Amino acid sequence: MKMWARVKALFMRKQLEMDLEDELTFHLTQREEKKRAAGIAAEEAKYAARREFGNATRVKEICREMWSFASLETFWRDLRYGARALGKNPGFTVAAVMAMALGIGVNTGIFSVLNGVALRLLPIPKAEQIVSVDQIFHGKLSRNVHGEPELFSYPEYKNYRDHNHVFTGLLAYEPFLEATLGGESPAQLMGAAASCNYFDVLGERPELGRVFVDADCNAPGASAVVVLSDDLWRSRFGADPSIVGKSVSLNRAKFVVIGIAAPGFGGLDPWPSAFWAPVTMQKELEPARGFLNEDNTGWLGMLGRMEGGVSIEEVRSDLRVIAARIDEQYPGRTTTLVVHRASFMGRPEERTVVFAIGGVVLAAVGLVLLIACANVANLLLARASARQKEIVIRLSIGGSRWQIVRQLLTESLLIAFLGGALGSLVAFWSMEGIAQFVLAHLPHGSPRLVWNVNPDLRVWGYSLALTALTGIVFGLAPALHATRQDLSTAIKEDSAGLTGKTGSGGFLRSTLVGMQVAVCMILLIAAGLLMRGLYMAQTVDPGFEMRGITQAIFDLPSQGYSEERARTFQRELIARVAALPGVDGVEQARVTPLNHQFMGTGVTLAGETEARQVEFNIVSPGFFTMLGMPIVRGRGFTKEETQADTGVMVVTESTARRLWPGGDAVGKTLRNFEKEEYQVVGVVRDAQASHLGEPGGIFIYMPAGPKEQANLQLLVHSKSGDSATANGIREAARTLDADLMVDVTKLEENLELWRTPSRIVAALSGALGTLALLLASIGVYGVVSYGVSQRIREIGIRMTLGADGKDVMTLLLRQAMRPVMIGAVVGVAGCAAVSQILSKVLYGIGSHDPIAFIGVPLFLLGIALLASYVPARRATRIDPVVALRYE
Amino acid sequence: MEKQGDLVQGTLDMLVLKALARGTKHGYAVAEWIHESSNDVLHVEEGALYPALHRLELRGLLSAEWGSSENNRRAKFYSLTKAGRKELAQEAEYWQRMSGAIARVMQMA
């Protein structure tokens, strides 16, 4: 009934309008006649009737709205009106839309990256049913970890697989498995050892051949089969279908290729897998150590597919029972399980890092958006005062405040949506390219990554919500302000006010400018700090010599080398490399300096029971000399100490100071986990050989004895330090073992990986800071220009009365700079807090860097001064006569 | 003297329904009826009457028809529908209970 009446009314708009008119006229006429009949004069009767009736316009409006699909229809009307208003003022529209496009585009782009890295579901069928399971231990903990502490042991996995009631299948896989693919030129691959239900649980069909069956996982070492990725199949085997059934060599073990995974499938991590082997083949893939029978070694990630109708909460409570049962074997330990929808970077530790970084970056781009919003709000405010009369008239003829606010909000939403659509489209279109560019330019040594930054529903939703929110945020204050008029004064008010104030809305405008400056200041100082950090990272002296040194990295244990064979290999390799032309030194080290590998262990001081965590390296006697690290007390290692495994060590100066304060370290002893005693023979100067930018940790060196030979890497010094040396090393290694992967690079290249994060951050913050600065200076400029144009008559009068250009300039600048100064002070204070956080996240950044904290504000104030000077100067050039006539 | 503002919305609706209980009336007649039958105590601001009439019509409690008035003018006549009668009965019953209760409370010293 109601609906139908309205639909009818929609089509009979005119009729309805006339009827309403007739109905009210009839009433007024009747009343008027009655009054006249009572003897009241005709004119008086008419007015009395109207007075008794009240506001007829308002009554009509209420009725009209009742009869229409009020919201929809008024929205459509507001929209058309708004579009017309924007079209009439193209300069304003373009400026506002561009500001919004910049702000929203940057936000959407960053969010789509975060989404691609850590939010979107795995690229597999029905991914919403897949959950990842991780464990966090509390209490007394003794556990071996291979990879990350959240991972499970094989017996634990079998326990969960066989005793849960919530999964149709639970898979396990080893996420960090590297293997050398044998062949004419060996290649180092990332792969996975996976439970045999891996592909079935994920719902992945092979492109060719078959995937694992349960029988492949029956017994350790029994089924040497492998599934290759489509990517590897194409790049390495020319997409030859006959590869299925042939065997390939992985870490020198023969594996029969049984299938090729579907194109685009790269496993469950952002670093794509090139192959999958049954989990029971772990020992064959990593001959150094077998994990299958170890109850308390974490090395497997777990993902399960939930049965239909099972909730994540049910999964949690079901698995908790199993976890509690396992805990019973380890008194004093409790395990918490972390279960959530599976995505890339899903392990709790990874998530913490990704979300921390993502949060900081999103906050930064959010601030840029805030500045853009303030700009548009200011433009709207200026425009609202130009439309003052229109608004006042509408208010005084009975339009409600809400109606006008709604109209103004529709306009600002229109701007937001135009800008949001433009910005998001550009972001979607460019993000793919930017991601590719960044991934292609990661330094040597960082893993190959795959990001899918294409927008999905979540990204669209985010961008839509953000757009709507910004439309309301920047539109609401100006709309409320414009309608908060005292009707009588507003109508009377002269458009070019003569008061000393900046016109109406001056306070709101100043607040907006102050806020812009404050936010911009925070972004710029943060950017400044990061740039300084980058500069220091680029120029930092790590405290040792890198020039002319080439490193050769290889992994003998994974290639099945015994201790004996490793010794022979090392001896012969060193002999051959030392004989290369130009080479004047060959040394060994367990890890080469700054190679992002950290060896840690616990040691106990004499007279103490609690173990201390220390970092260590195992080096040959000439290591310190080659790297220019002087021994300041005692001596270095001798040749004899590397012939047998002797209990001596060299510590750094900081270590000596911290472990034996006030005394002489040389001669003191430490015990390692196995209670073996080590004696300090020398103290070496501090160097940033393990963590760049962090000198002063506890670091000890031990001699490279015969037992260590399988794990050592080579450092080669040559006069030229050029590619000839590198090729010579590769050639020498190939002669000894053609299947061994040897990674030969300059030692200096290790610095790149350390610098990349701060370089990316500095580039990002530099770009954002520039954007913020641009938007903020446009804001300051706009507000001062507007203020000047509002006060032209006042300026004219002042000048007629004898003020000169300088006085006017001073007056205008003083007023323009006041909000800027307040904003600057607030910004500096805010930034002190921000830098406290930054200095914890990024190395090399002092939280009170004077250059950033004094330089940036001065720079920003200069820009603001310039932005106000330009329009202010225009004001001083005004001819007083023209100014007085100015409307 | 009561003012229109003292009439809560629901009360105005009820009065309109009551006015139409005896038969079809146009808006002006509804206003006059409320006026007279309350001995000039209830003064409805006449403009407010029309939104109420239209609201009740949209709710299906009233039906409306155009016809000509006593003095041959085009006028919109409203009458109660079945649903309108039911609503009036409910409202009246509720009102009786409320006013009775309030009267009792006020009489207690």
Describe the structure.
The complex is a heterodimer of chains A (887) and B (109). In chain A, strand 7 and strand 8 (253-261) form a beta hairpin. Chain A is of the alpha+beta class and 887 residues long. In chain A, 53% of the residues lie in helices and 16% in strands. Mean pLDDT of chain A is 84; it is low at 494-503. In chain A, strands 1, 3, 4, 5, 6, 7, 8, 9, 11 and 12 form a 10-stranded mixed beta sheet that branches. A 6-stranded mixed beta barrel of chain A has the order 15-16-21-18-20-19. In chain A, strands 14-22-13-23 form a 4-stranded antiparallel beta sheet, covered by helices on one side. Chain A folds into 5 domains: 2-68, no CATH class; 69-120 and 351-493, no CATH class; 127-342, no CATH class; 497-541 and 755-887, no CATH class; 549-753, no CATH class. Chain B has 109 residues and is of the alpha+beta class. Chain B is 56% helix and 15% strand. Chain B contains 4 helices and 3 strands, in the order H-E-H-H-E-E-H. At the A-B interface, helix 1, helix 2 and helix 4 of A face helix 2, helix 3 and strand 3 of B.
CATH names the topology of chain B as Arc Repressor Mutant, subunit A
Average of the residue pLDDT scores of chain B: 82
Number of strands of chain B: 3
CATH class label of chain B: Mainly Alpha
> How many structural domains in the coordinates of chain B?
1
Number of helices of chain A: 27
Distance between the termini of chain B: 26 Å
The level of helicity of chain A is: 40-55%
Low-confidence stretches of chain B: 1-5
So what's the overall shape of chain B? globular
Main beta-sheet annotation of chain B: 3 strands, antiparallel
Number of helices of chain B: 4
